[in-house]
Design brief:
159 residues, 0% strand, 8 helices, mainly alpha
């Protein structure tokens, strides 16, 4: 069974475990850049625009982390285990899933992933938003390219 998810959805789900760390990194980078602004190597207007862009990227990461976390919380425990093992590479075990046949696991997984994608879409994660806002963030852009390069498959994913 092929699990059909948009590549941009796969990419953001694969980056979820790193979003908190990336927000902290952006925050520190923004502070450092602002503190070093007195060296005068960059035009003040250019620097202000750069810092504003970096702040927006940090906010996008926070928003993305929030909507993914909220969507995960709306899934059942079994569905959360499926998502965490498939996209986040976690070794979460569940006795119920362990007793399923491969075909049942794939069917449940496909429904779960489609449901998750629909929740994210309703929260505002659309292809348009991805292309306009998220693809400019390095970690997301790199993961998206990886998913595209692998024909829609990222490590640990079926499709």
């Amino acid at each position: 069974m092929i699990i059909v998810l948009e590549n941009y959805t796969k990419a953001v789900l694969r980056t979820y475990p790193f979003l908190q760390m990336m927000q902290t990194t952006y925050e520190q980078h923004i502070k450092n850049r602002a503190l070093l602004s007195c060296d005068g190597r960059m035009n003040t207007e250019v620097l202000a625009e750069y810092l504003a862009r970096e702040i927006l990227h940090k906010r996008c990461l926070a928003w993305l982390e929030e909507i993914i976390r909220d969507a995960l919380l709306r899934l059942s425990e079994v569905e959360q285990v499926l998502v965490r093992t498939h996209f986040f590479g976690e070794n979460a075990e569940n006795a119920e899933i362990g007793s399923w046949s491969d075909s049942k696991r794939l069917r449940v997984q496909a429904r779960c992933f489609q449901r998750l994608e629909a929740m994210l879409h309703r929260s505002g994660l659309t292809k348009k938003y991805f292309d306009e806002e998220l693809v400019h963030i390095e970690i997301i852009r790199k993961m998206y390219r990886r998913v595209e390069r692998e024909g829609g498959k990222a490590e640990g994913t079926l499709a």
